[in-house]
Every structure is written in structure tokens, then in C-alpha cells.
Request: fold
Amino acid sequence: MLLSVRRPALLALLLPLALAAAGCANNRPVITTRGDVSVTGSVDRMTDAQIAAAASAWGQRYDADPKSRTNILNYAAALRLGGRTDQAVAVLEKGMVASQNDPEMSAAYGKALAANGNFDQALRVIRQTQQPDRPDWKLYSAEGAILDQQGNPAEARATYQKALQIAPREASIYNNLALSYLLAGDVANAEKTLRQAAALPGATSRIRQNLALVLGLQGKFKEADAIARQELDPAQAEANVAYLKSMLSQANTWKEARAQG
Reply:
């Protein structure tokens, strides 16, 4: 099934499903990094206030010790979550100097550059860090995400497959691959791939919310609502499904208008 909703609308659909409120554990770092940003509890469950608090806390630690790898990665991750991508790039540029040939640092830097719109530079950073004799799946996954943002889905998916050869049970790779299908309008393959991801031990709330998204895009609202309610509070889940119905209605109206024109 190829979806008729245009790419900008698909990108917009990803946003509301990532918004939810939940508490984060105290006495532990709020943000950690494993090639992807994760949060104590879930990054998808952080409010704007919690993201701002994380950025402030990690900013203070970074000021106290700007050469600490942990401080650099966590502060940059918090900045990215808060939309301060240019500042995240600046922090990670210094981190790249302090931690040369660090795949995790390079992946974070590449993602920050891509989020800031510097796609070509992001790819150079990722590819220069990758070691052919000891390839890192996190770098392949980051490279695939950048290629997707550049509008190169075939190359992106080939890169995700390289990542899966190294880490065949890594849920985040399947998630990225599914979103590649979704951005291309191939929602059936997106659903199939997200179901694979959701069944793996490392599946996150974001993955399950993305599955709810693709189900909703196909009009499977009952199952989409059931999954969303497990991840979000009932009001937010209901609002997300209503949003999906509205977007699909608009897409169908646009399609009909073009056919009549």
C-alpha cells in the first residue's frame, strides 16, 4: 500500500505521537546515549519542561568539566531535544577534538549536523569515522537516517541492512528502516517492519507509538488507539487518533480535488 499523504504531512504526523508526560527517575543521569538518544524512562515521555531541566542540569555539569565525554554527549543530546541544534553542534565539535575516532561521538555529531540542516557535512563525519575492518552499526544507522533526510531512500535502506548484519536484533535499526518506508509512502512495509521492531527486547515507547501511527494511517484506528493508550494518557491518545483521521481526510480531499481538476 502506497500512501497518498505528501512527505511534509508525514513528517508532521510524527510529531504529536512523540509528545507525552511522565516522570523521570531521580538520582540518575536524565539522558544517556547508545548511538541513539535515550532517557531514563523514555525520551518520548519527556515534557518540554523536563527537557529544559535536563539541558540546564547537564549544562552545569558541562561547564564544570567540558572535556568529560559523558557531559558532552548528554548536554548535546538535551540541546537537540530542545531544538537548540546549532548549540548542540558547537558542543559536539569540541567533543570531536577531545574524543577523536569515537564512533558514538561521531554519530551524535553527525545527527546534530543533520538536524541543523548540514547533511553533506554530517555524512562526511559519519563516513570518515566508520572503520571498514570494524564497522559500527550505530554509524550505519545514523548514516541511513541522514540519507533518508536527503531523500535517498534506496541508499538509506541498503545502509540500514549493513547495520542489521552487525546487530540483527537492534530494534532502533528496524524503527529507522520502517520510517524510511513511511517517508516514501510505503506504509504496508512500514507496518511490517515496525511490528518486527516492537517484538524485540529493546523496543521503546517511540517504536510502539510509530506503529500506532502507521496503523492509523491505514485506517486501523481501533488497534492504533489501543497501542497509543498503552503509551500515552487517554486524552493524548484520543487526540492523536483524531489528528490522524483529520490528516487522512485532508489527504483524501486533496486527492479528489486533483482528480476532478
Summary: The CA atoms of residues 40 and 189 lie 30 Å apart. Confidence is low (pLDDT under 50) at residues 11-42.
